[in-house]
Amino acid sequence: MPRLLVAGKLHPSGVALLKDYESRGVEVDYVEEVSEASYEHLISEADALVIRTQPLSAATIAKAKKLKVVSRHGVGYDSVDLQALNARGIGLTIVGDVNSVSVAEHAMTQMLAAAKRTLLADRSVRQIGEWGWRNGLEQQEISRKNLLILGYGRIGRHLARMASGFEMQVKAFDPYLEKAGWPEGAVTPVSLEEGLGWADFISVHTPRGDRPILGAKEFSLMKPGVIIANTARGGVVCERALAEALTSGHVGAAGVDVFDEEPPTKRIPLFSHPNVVLSPHIAGLTAECGERMAIASINNAMDFLSGTVDPTLVVNRECLEPTKQQVLG
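RE: above sequence
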């Protein structure tokens, strides 16, 4: 029977599932700490690895003599050296559509909190003498405003549905979907340049590329006072350009859940802006989503070994070769 290494603390339902697999003969190593050093000494014996947000470097992969699959406890894999996995023929799986609602809710929360200046409002009550802040009328409504969604996948579509409850006018930029086939519905595609000049709110849901999708040039095209929500990945929005746009007032407020360095080891320019709502990369970490991700990531690892994995959940499908493992009973 295979050996499963789990790196990172799981929801209790995931722990229960590990015990179920153990009862069927699977050997399980479970390390709760989220760091590469905490699990690398165990990887040489692992047939499958479930990993959370910690790195998986080429150096660690080189020690994984038996490894056949890495199962991400999430949908992103920026911290995994995919090239090193491909070189060894090791599969990489993701959990699919288990966190899209959670992330969309967080983006909606960011837009509301930024527009309503929630942090400033809270401070004005807690600090004696600041009650008069309310008379500055800094708060804004989001109803009937223009929302541009960058990346119109599952998360973007959930956000569009939520925004419709506020009667927001929604457009989306997603060149991949324009080529592959635009989803049915009221949301229409728009070019990035046109969308940036049209939007009152911008929510970012694109993967990380070679350069930020929003940098200094893109900020210059936006309406003064625009509100930005970023629940995508660090590096998708240029932190320095965003901070400069906030300082100038060109960007009115922002919600930021993801950072170039996680966790930040030093103060970054965004920390000094009172109109920024920050969170520690938790958009997809609700209790409900944590349970779904734990169960899905474990099952993906074991299904890969047994040859029954859903191929749409395999990032490097060229590694989907018939396995020598027996189907678990």
